[in-house]
Amino acid sequence: MTSIQIGAQALLGGFGNLLLRRQVFIRRLQWGIVAGYAALLVVPVVLPLPASTDFIWTNLTRFAQFVFWGLWWPFVILATALVGRFWCGILCPEGALSEFASERGAGRAIPGWMKWSGWPVLSFISTTVYGQLTSIYQYPKPAALLLGGSTFAAIAVGARYGKAKRVWCRFLCPVSGVFGIVSKIAPLHFRVDPASWPAPRGRPDAVNCAPLVPIKTMQGAAACHMCGRCSGHRGAIRLAWRKPAIDIVRGSGRMATGWETAMLLPVMLGLVPAALTWSGSDWFLAIRQWLVEACLDAQLMWPLSLRLPWWLLTNYPAASDIMTIVDAVSLLALLALSAALATLAFGFPLAASAWILRNRVRPMHHLAQSLIPLASASLFTGLLSLTISQLRMDGIMLPIADDLRSALVLAAAVWSVALCHQITGLYDRRFGRRLLATCLLALPTLTFAVGWAAFS
Ligand code: SF4
Fold it and tell me: Where are any strands of DSSP class E within 304-404?
């Protein structure tokens, strides 16, 4: 290690220790964020909808929309990819409130059903779909209902289960699964060195790891919220650099599960791109046209005209924005189609690559982890389109933003292919087989990126 690297590691270790020493300050910061979050969530609900002449800097509702969907959502994803889950451990208002409730709550044991690994996938799908059906990016009421409901559930779970823990964040939070996956490419983590973990003398000291990470055996950083409370613990844990994505190739990626593959393939590479682009999609229009004609042929008028309350389907007559049953079914069909296509397009090459390498299931899920850079870049740049469109509405143009987004997705695809090739080397040393397995997955990976760049 060079002296510069040693200095950088020492600096990082010092920052980790600073987080540990400044827990009181972090708690105060969290309360400040909770206050801002509550104000931006609740106040726009009682204000009139913004007019076309309102700007982000002149209208609180537009400002809140920009903060939630133009800044918070895309840039938390970016930050998680760059530095890990600091957002979760230090800044997230929901996590802070859940832990606060848990400190004073009933402290019951966590029920078995809550530990089911499928919850992060199911809750992310349901909130994404519900958000699109109710136009959460455009209107304050669905935002308050979905985000406020999630916060309420986080507090309720905290008040009932665990003692000073973040049970909600660990098992049920709708975005926890995505954050965990994206954080695997971060070059920062709390490194644990079990070999230098000294045997406890007397009563063992304890660390309150709120998201219930088994600290001594922690693999990677997917579950770690980077709160810093274990920094320096027994001289065996410190904040440290690591090679970006090394966790995917040699760390927790080796123990990847089917649920993580499900989050990557049908959800992050299928459902999410469709959910972020459906309103301008030719496929959506084609499905809708077909359904409209089918309803007219059958003389069924109610799917074309029935209005449902805003908390079920978008319903804002004053803004001429109403989602009919036909619109909703078309949207759901598009999302399901996109998820199915992504599963098939990536799933078959993955299964074939795993078969070429070893004919076992484990390499397939491990190989699927190589798609994390592509899925993360596609998610971030897709969400960034919300930022760009909101700024454009206010006359702020970002001329090269679209080119940069495309370049990022293409670069991430190349990175994914390179990671795939590295992973193949762990299962088979024969170059020909490795090349064939890599090429099989490279085909949908690069096709996805080129398609994304062409049509986004
Ligand atoms: S392992 Fe737990 S205590 Fe340590 S930094 Fe991560 S979340 Fe905090």
Answer: 315-316, 321-322
Contact indicator for 229, 207 with CB cutoff of 8 Å: yes
Neighbours of 226 (CB within 10 A): 24
Ligand 1 mean position, distance from CA 34 (Å)? 21
Express each pLDDT in 51-60 by its tens digit.
989 999 999 9
* 163 close to 103: Cβ distance less than 8 angstroms: yes
Q: Could you write out the DSSP letters of every residue in 79-133?
A: HHHHH-THIIIII-HHHHHHHHHHHHS--BPPPGGGG-TTHHHHHHHHHHHHHHH
Quickly tell me which residue has 């490419």 as its tokens. 185
Which residues, 6+ apart, have CB-to-CB distance to 51 below 8 Å? none
263: DSSP letter: I
Angstrom distances, CA of residue 124 to CA of 65, 91, 263: 20, 20, 9
* Cα four-point dihedral sign 266, 271, 272, 277: positive
How far away, in angstroms, is 123 Cα from ligand 1 center?
24
- pLDDT computed for residue 245 by the predictor: 92
Mutate to test the pocket of ligand 1, among 90, 227, 231, 234 (most ligand atoms within 8 A of CB): 227
Amino acid at the residue 152? F
**194 SS3 class:** helix
**At a CB cut-off of 8 Å and minimum separation 6, what does 96 contact?**
27, 30, 31, 33, 34
pLDDT tens digits for range 87-120: 999 999 999 999 999 999 999 999 999 999 999 9
Rounded to the nearest whole angstrom, what is the distance from the C-alpha of residue 228 to the centroid of ligand 1?
A: 6
pLDDT, tens only, 153-207: 999 999 999 999 999 999 999 999 999 999 999 999 999 987 777 766 666 678 9
Exposure letters 358-386 (e unless 16+ CB within 10 A, then b): beeeebbbbbbbbbbbbbbbbbbbbbbbb
